[in-house]
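Data deposition worksheet. Section B asks for the primary sequence of the deposited chain exactly as it was used as input, without tags or linkers unless they were present during the calculation. Section C holds the resulting structure in token form. Section D is free text for depositor observations; keep each observation to a single sentence. Incomplete worksheets are returned to the depositor.
Section A, Depositor: J.P.
Section B:
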Amino acid sequence: MNFKYYKTKAIILLIAILIVIANMLIKTIGPFLNSLVEGKFKEDIKTIADYLDLLGVLTIVSFFLWLIDTYLWKTKAFTWLVDLPNISGRYVGVLQSDYNGSFPMIAVLEICQTASEVKVNGYFANQGTTVQTSTSYSYSELITKGQDNFFTLSYQFANSPNLTSQQIFQHGGTVSLKYFPDIKTLKGEYYNIRKNLGSIDVAFDNKRLLGRLQ
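Section C:
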């Protein structure tokens, strides 16, 4: 987990509050456990309480940060903490490439996102067919906010052809897609190391990720 998409002052304040709450919980739980046990087990409970003092705060704070990073950041209640659109889901549309002449391809992008990172997997096929020709995965991703307050998803990718494909070869490249939240669409361009250029235009289709073309 990293905090590059979190508002700096907000995350510092949140961690401070979580530490205070965690300390209060630990100081309440320890005496409560001691009050329940008498005799030979009392020393064991005291040892557990000591460990809670040492590790409990870190565990509680880490759990709440994980909860926020994975789920809660998507809610309106946490917009004060994370200034980021939720673009996770399955997007379907068209990739227009200048490879071997300009021709369109079916493009499916599946985006898995938390508040701290985003991963993109792509699935592609020739128009008019349902046979997947290649897949791609991202390995370096960044979401930035422009001066117009719209967000752009940029990433580097590695693309691998299916074994049955004879026209596409393994390659890498860069993609830059602008997100339009009112129509849940990603539009932009890509460039690969084979010096091919193209455009990508995909629209949100489903929250469910399939891990394949269709």
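Section D:
The chain has a mean pLDDT of 87.
Residues 121 and 134 are 11 Å apart (CA to CA).
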